[in-house]
Specification:
Keywords: Oxidoreductase
Structural class: alpha/beta
Order of helices and strands: EHEHEHEHEHEHEHHHEEEEEEEHHE
Number of strands: 15
CATH topology of the largest domain: Dihydrodipicolinate Reductase, domain 2
GO molecular function: nucleotide binding; oxidoreductase activity
Distance between the termini: 36 Å
Pfam family, one: GFO_IDH_MocA_C3
Shape: globular
Largest sheet: 9 strands, mixed
CATH class of the largest domain: Alpha Beta
CATH architecture of the largest domain: 2-Layer Sandwich
Oligomer: single chain
Strand content: 25-35%
CATH superfamily of the largest domain: Dihydrodipicolinate Reductase, domain 2
Strand order of the largest sheet: 14-13-12-11-7-10-9-8-15
Length: about 325
């Protein structure tokens, strides 16, 4: 396969970055775009003149059946992902999907089964899985250099509540959940990815304010093996901020808005050199390279499942006011 023919399903704001990165890959040809909004399709063509003349669809099923594509990039509201992922895989297409992969544990298991059955590539668009700082922490923890993880402290804030008010992200029929299921999904996924620790139980407090979906979430976790964590996802804040601290037996990783510091067993802090950092990438590049057999999938469907296992348990805990076991099937 010299060129991977990609179809874009959903051409809203998040799709524009995917289109730009896919077009930059020498082995990609975007051959079709799809959106229920003619205005969104027109805006995309205006923003990316290279797409002039590509086939346009308003029904994703027609795009999948068209024979024009080898792969699809899904950028639709969250609850649409499952149906679109399954249809694409069943048609023999590779899939790059925005997060969350799906909105229930049941659907996540069905996607994993279909990926295995089809033999196709599925990448969940978790950018942090490809960023140098997060890869460095993952590699150092996996090496055992600093001993086992003992505690994780994570904080994420965003002006999400006001910024998405009246839009689909606060409609549970389309979003499947609130901030925890949206930007918070990235935070949860990368914590599980870096530590490689399955969550055992969670106690959650959640504040919706006047929204039908979660806005602020305070989660306390125990991982298998005994490590503990606090995860704070704040959707009602005036600014974006992300702060991660991972304490191991012999060291600590501090990641403040992308700036990494490491503390060794001697108590001294240092910043890893550029040469020490793993090479970064992005989900779009990895998707195409994985299809071509050049590299393994960096954010496979299993992380979509692990995130939903923890998210569903957190929602249940908040409803029932008690710790809830995170079930792994």
């Amino acid at each position: 396969m010299e060129k991977v023919r990609v179809g874009i399903i959903g051409t809203g704001g998040i799709a524009q970055g995917h289109i730009q990165r896919l077009l930059a890959h020498p082995a990609v040809e975007i051959t079709a775009i799809c959106d229920t909004s003619p205005q969104s399709l027109a805006h995309t063509l205006e923003r990316h003149p290279q797409l002039k003349g590509v086939q346009q669809f308003q029904d994703y099923r027609e795009l999948i059946r068209s024979g024009l594509v080898d792969a699809v990039n899904i950028n639709t509201p969250h609850t649409a992902h499952f149906e679109q992922i399954m249809a694409a895989l069943e048609a023999g297409l590779h899939v790059l999907t925005e997060k969350p992969m799906v909105c229930s544990v049941e659907h996540a298991h069905r996607v994993l089964q279909q990926v295995e059955k089809s033999g196709k590539v599925l990448v969940v668009s978790y950018q942090r899985h490809y960023m140098s700082e997060f890869l460095y922490i993952r590699d150092q923890i996996a090496s055992g250099r600093y001993g086992p993880v003992q505690f994780v402290q994570a904080f994420q804030s965003q002006n999400w509540y006001r910024g998405t008010k009246g839009k689909w992200r606060q409609d549970p029929a389309l979003s499947g959940g609130g901030q925890l299921n949206d930007s918070g999904s990235h935070l949860v996924a990368v914590i599980l990815f870096m530590t490689n620790l399955p969550a055992e139980s969670v106690f959650g407090y959640i504040e919706n304010f006047d929204s039908p979906v979660d806005i602020n979430s305070a989660l306390s976790l125990r991982f298998q093996g005994g490590a503990l964590a606090n995860i704070s996802v704040v959707g009602n804040a005036p600014t974006w901020h992300e702060d991660l601290t991972i304490c191991c037996d012999q060291g600590v990783f501090f990641l403040r808005n992308g700036k990494l510091e490491v503390c060794g067993p001697d108590g001294k802090r240092f910043t890893p050199t550029q040469e020490e950092m793993p090479k970064g990438s992005d989900p779009d590049t990895n998707f195409i390279n994985a299809i071509l057999g050049k590299e393994p999938v960096g954010s496979p469907a299993i992380w979509g499942l692990r995130v939903m296992e923890l998210t569903e348990a957190a929602w249940k805990s908040a409803r029932e006011g008690r710790p809830v076991e995170v079930k792994h099937l």
